[in-house]
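User: I'm putting together notes for a lab meeting next week and I want to include a structural view of one of the chains we've been expressing. I don't have a solved structure, so I'd like a prediction I can at least talk through. The sequence is below, exactly as it appears in our construct file.
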Amino acid sequence: MKRVITYGTFDLLHYGHINLLRRAKALGDYLVVALSTDEFNWNSKHKKCYFSYERRKQLLEAIRYVDLVIPEDCWEQKEDDVKEFRIDTFVMGDDWKGKFDFLKGLCEVVYLERTPEISTTQIKKDLEK
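Assistant: Thanks for the context. Below is the predicted structure for the 129-residue chain, given as structure tokens.
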């Protein structure tokens, strides 16, 4: 079984997120999504989420491409996650290109093109108008 992992906040879930999850799942048989906790988002990313971790987790678990949702508590956990969950492929959006190449000794690292016309940041900006 080929295992894939991706990371994200997945707040205000939209079709760009679904596209990423669909394409990540297509790279293997089992998709693990590491979901940023509220504390990690606030303390390290300086982001306030609209939906709580538990609500975002429920949404992700309802998506057919997602097999397991785990918490992302810190930037440094990625190497441990790859080992613990026996990951074959690490996937991120191409806005992170090169940032996780240090994992290439442990697994394949793939940066997928983002869906260009949609982002949570853009949704929030549009709602403020």
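A couple of points you could mention at the meeting. The chain has a mean pLDDT of 92. The two ends are 47 Å apart (CA to CA).

User: Perfect, that's what I needed.
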